[in-house]
Each structure stands twice: as C-alpha cells, then as structure tokens.
Design goal:
The chain is an alpha/beta fold. The chain contains nine helices and seven strands; from the N terminus they run αααβααβαββαβααββ. Strands 3-2-1-4-5-7-6 form a seven-stranded mixed sheet, sandwiched between helices. The protein is globular and about 45 Å long.
Length: about 240
C-alpha cells in the first residue's frame, strides 16, 4: 500500500506538468500513468539506471518522460519507499512520435528537460543510449520494419543497455482481440484509421529479440486490465 501511495504521488507530480498543455493532456497523463501497470513495473524493477540516456520511441505526449522528469525532484525521491529501487537520477531523455499534436503537448510539459521530435520511428536518428523504450507501438509497422528497427536499436545501445518493449500477445484469445480493437478505435478517433497491424505472440516477440542479438525475458504486463500485453526486457550483452 505504501508503495502504491508513493507512486500515486509521483504520477500526480508528472501529470501536473501537462496543466499548461490543456485539460485533455492533463487528464490523459494522469489516467495513463495511474492505471497502466507498465510504468510502475519499470520503476519497481529498477529497469532504468542512474545517468541513463533514454530514448522513447512512439513517445506520444511523453508521459513516461514526464514521469522520469518528476522523479528527479528531491521532494519526490525523499518520499519514495526504501523497499523499492531508488528512483533513477541524472538521466537524459529523448522522444520521437509521428503525431505533431502529441509532441507539442510533450514539449509544453517537459520544457528543456527532454528533447522530443516529430518523426516516424523508422527514420528516427538513434544516438548512443543506455535504455530504449517502445510501448504499444511496434505492431503498427510491418514485420520487416520491426526487425530493421530492432537491429538499429541494438546497434545504438551500449553494452549492457536495455530495450523495454511492451506489446500485445496474439496467443491470448479474447484478451488479444479486445486489445487490438482498442488500437483500431484509437486510430479511428485520431483520424488515421489503420486497418492492419503486424502482431506476434509473446513467444514470437521473444524469439525476434533473441534473433537480433538480445538476451531477452518476457513477463505479463496486463494485471488489473483486460488487455493481452507483455513486457519484454532485452539486454545487449
């Protein structure tokens, strides 16, 4: 319970950064960070180390980057429970997303604390980094593009660097169909209807990462939700 309270305080601090970007951006950030289990899991497992150079591909309005920025506040870290890994300190962040409106909100929220840019992730310039995150985006590009992007990420990561990939698990029956329907609806609402997604089972995602060269593990990432998501943690040896 104490851990959840501390995380809720961190979420509140991160969401406040979006107030100048408008009511919609603020409530989206608060809802996404507060209800999606992947964000707390990343911090609870200490997957982003101190002084990490983080690249978030498909960052949207930058809610993960805002969460990491809020974690730099000494008042927030002072309230962080000792039973959890310390919040990552002295990190630098960079985000890419195709949607200009989302990047505009990210820039308002993050200010000079992060570099964010409008870019198709398939063409994004990846500088040397320690952590790359891709949450719920890779199935929007075709299978060949997935592999090419993962190979570029592998090349950009320093030895020991991590890829954090959250994706749908196509083996999960109705949960996966529900997840895919949500993705379809999101593209419809945004006015860019996508009629095909390039999906894989959790095991297929795992094998793809290993084929690229990553040491990789998979864990469920759908607790408390109706979705069929998994988190894959890939490490460059």
């Amino acid at each position: 319970m104490r851990q959840q309270i501390a995380f809720a305080g961190l979420v509140a601090e991160a969401a406040l950064r979006y107030r100048p970007a408008g009511v919609g951006a603020y409530y989206f950030a608060r809802g996404k960070l507060g209800t999606d289990p992947v964000f707390f899991a990343v911090l609870r497992q200490g997957l982003i180390p101190d002084r990490a150079r983080v690249i978030d591909l498909g960052c949207g309005q930058g809610v993960l980057l805002a969460l990491l920025a809020a974690a730099q506040d000494p008042r927030v870290s002072a309230r962080w429970p000792q039973g959890l890994p310390p919040l990552p300190r002295d990190i630098t962040t960079h985000g890419f997303d195709l949607r200009a409106d989302a990047i505009k909100a990210a820039r308002i929220a993050l200010g000079n604390g992060s570099r964010v840019a409008v870019s198709d992730v398939r063409d994004a310039q990846l500088s040397e980094c320690d952590v790359v995150t891709i949450f719920d985006m890779l199935h929007y590009v075709d299978y060949d593009a997935q592999r090419r992007l993962l190979e570029r990420i592998y090349a950009a990561l320093t030895p020991g660097g991590r890829l954090l990939l959250r994706a749908g698990d196509a083996s999960q029956g109705w949960r996966f169909r529900f997840t895919l329907a949500g993705d379809w609806l999101i593209t419809l609402v945004r006015g860019h209807l996508q009629t095909r997604f390039w999906c894989r089972t959790g095991e297929q995602w795992l094998q793809l990462l290993r084929q690229v060269g990553f040491e990789a593990q998979l864990q469920p990432m759908c607790v408390g939700t109706p979705f069929a998501n998994v988190l894959l943690v890939g490490r460059r040896p």
